[in-house]
Design brief:
About 30% of the residues lie in helices and about 15% in strands. It has a twelve-stranded mixed β-sheet. β3, α3 and β4 form a beta-alpha-beta unit. It starts with 11 loop residues before the first strand and ends in a 25-residue tail after the last helix. Bound molecules: S-adenosylmethionine and iron/sulfur cluster (SF4). Catalyzes the cyclization of GTP to (8S)-3',8-cyclo-7,8-dihydroguanosine 5'-triphosphate.
């Protein structure tokens, strides 16, 4: 099993399959994806390369793969990517994080390909506010996609980044929705990245304030398994769904880190906010998953104890579309 010098075990791979995104979320890509920044960025891992990556991680004990991006559903071969991840020996769960743009039309095919879990980002339940945040008038279509996923019994989580000047006033609206909708709604604390410093200063909402609000309203923290990762989860007897809090600025957030990340160009990132990725593309392109596994094992020994977000250090991460959050 992959383990670092701090005893953390990594059974979860977040694999970015494209940097490209069709949305313009104001906290992530406010000017949209800028194409042509570098040729490498437009040359994502192929299906065969993803096969090599997933087999290498699986041989090291990885059990779960999440496909992310940019927007993974923009890959025309996403169904093959899901199948490839699912078929690797040892991989038990394949998940995807999507903006939901193609959810309604594609979710049946994704499930047939082996998708086990779905995360959809919805930063507002008000169509106008949704459009103001993402640049797209697609809320209704995305909600229909979620209904379809629930009909198919796919465990579904919804991600929302709370933003002081945009959707914080909708907090109760989100809770009303969870009362009748059996999803796990994850409030992700806004993270400072290289590109969003001013936006962060005016929009960051402390996760601990949300936690106190929930506890005062009868929500109780659910005890999760030791390997469940950094999200805190809360349940309430009157609600069909649950609330999760992802609070990267909280003390000890990094102590429960159980994930590694790979960029769409085959760079291993030991932390979302690492100074740089470790370029493994040549070994990946060779198709030698055993050699790749050895390189990954050696690299993991160099993983730091914690990110340094609290002191304003955001590493090489200009925005999370580069690596998938
Ligand atoms: N495009 C897909 C989506 O939006 O779900 C996948 C990639 S996106 C980078 C993954 C997650 O990161 C989304 O839930 C998004 O809200 C979140 N995210 C992006 N930038 C963020 C930031 N600066 N702070 C916190 N979460 C962020
Ligand atoms: Fe695209 Fe996701 Fe970033 Fe929004 S959060 S701009 S959907 S990558």
């Amino acid at each position: 099993m992959l383990q670092d010098n701090f005893g953390r075990r990594f059974y979860y791979l977040r694999l970015s399959v494209t940097d490209i995104c069709n949305f313009r979320c104001n906290y992530c890509l406010p000017d949209g994806y800028q194409c042509g920044e570098s040729i490498a960025r437009e040359n994502p891992l192929s299906v065969a390369e993803v096969d090599t990556v997933v087999r290498a991680f699986a041989s090291l004990g990885t059990e779960k793969v999440r496909l992310t991006g940019g927007e993974p559903s923009l890959r025309k071969d996403l169904v093959q990517l899901i199948e490839t991840a699912k078929h690797a020996d040892g991989i038990r769960r394949v998940a995807i994080t999507t903006n939901g743009y193609k959810l309604h039309s594609e979710i049946d095919a994704w499930q047939r390909a082996g998708l086990d879990q779905l995360n959809v980002s919805i930063d507002s339940l008000d169509p106008q506010q949704f459009q103001a945040i993402t640049g797209h008038d697609k809320l209704e279509k995305i909600l229909r996609g979620i209904d379809r996923a629930l009909e198919l019994d796919i465990p579904t989580k919804v991600n929302a980044v709370l933003l002081r000047e945009h959707n914080l006033a909708e907090f109760n609206h989100f809770l009303d929705w969870v009362k009748v909708t059996p999803v796990s709604l994850r409030f992700i604390e806004l993270m400072r990245t290289g590109d969003n410093r001013d936006f962060f200063a005016s929009n960051h909402v402390a996760g601990s304030d949300i936690e106190n609000l929930l506890l005062r309203s009868g929500w109780e923290q659910v005890v999760r398994s030791r390997d469940a990762g950094p999200a805190k989860e809360f349940a309430h007897p009157d609600y069909a769904g649950r609330i999760g809090l992802i609070m990267p600025y909280s003390k000890d957030f990094c102590a429960s880190c159980n994930r590694l990340r790979m960029s769409a160009q085959g760079a291993l990132h030991l932390c979302l906010f690492a100074e740089q990725g470790i370029d493994l593309r040549d070994t990946i392109a060779d198709g030698d998953h055993e050699a790749l596994a050895e390189q990954i094992r050696a690299a993991v020994c160099g993983k730091d104890a914690s990110h340094q977000l609290a002191s304003g250090f955001t590493g090489a991460t200009r925005n999370l579309a580069m690596l998938g959050g």
